[in-house]
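User: My instructor asked us to take a sequence, write out its structure as tokens, and then describe one feature of it. I'm not sure where to start. Here is the sequence I was given:
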Amino acid sequence: MVVQSCKNVTSESTDEIVDNPEQIEEDKVLSQEVYKEQVEDGTASETFELSEVDQLPLFDASCLTAAEPANCSTDKIKTFVDQYLTFNRGDEAKRYVEFTISKVGEVQHINYVSNATELCLDCKEKAINVVSEMQRWEPAVKDGAPVATIMRIEI
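Assistant: Let's start with the prediction itself. The structure tokens for your sequence are:
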């Protein structure tokens, strides 16, 4: 994978609007519609919030034996993302990627969320591409069984 750089542009450019409130809302609605379709056709599995599981999903199996598995996982996620994606930051905007870790550890249902008011060329696409390249995770555990969970990481 190649390092991907995202450049901010001024609001004078209207060629490609990626980060705006309307797009964010459209993405949320689309994500909800996809989930509803999965429920209707029986392909959706129960997904839990992080606060509902006994063991958090871990980015790397080596974190299972770490003194603080959650901190280990957070550090490895940051290292991975920073290795492949850089933003030219001139603001305090928050950029997140929300996704599901399936009960077998696969990254699924990736959604980019940003409160950035500037236009950002390809930020959404590049952030989603980086997350989609993540290795299989160690899934969360609830009541002794692996379960799907919703993750949200800052990019």
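For the description part of your assignment, you could build on this observation: The longest strand covers residues 145-154. Try explaining in your own words what that tells you about the chain.
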